[in-house]
Here is the input.
Amino acid sequence: MNKEEILEKSREEKKDEGREFVFHKGRKSGVTGMLILFVILAVFNLYNNHLETTYALVTMFFGYLGSESMGIYTLTHKKIDLLKTVIGCIVCIAFLVLYLNGVTN
Here is the structure.
């Protein structure tokens, strides 16, 4: 392939790498912010003995982690991404059960 063929193929994909970079950077900042807030709220809730709220936070966090890893696994097919998906979903479901048990009792 020569340079022109590569450029033409790239144009046909209709991807804007600059835009993808910006969205990736934004997602990374969002996840970092969410992680910081999660830690603050989880420590606060554990200190004040609000286990039900902590269970809800852990459920949401690992639900996000499992879902994100599943999306990555469908593209990469790496075993580590599959492992993160399985662990994230198992932990999410376990804490969801704990949360629902605490709310109904």
Observations:
- Residues 17-104 form one domain.
- The chain has a mean pLDDT of 87.
- The longest helix spans residues 17-47.
- The radius of gyration is 20 Å.
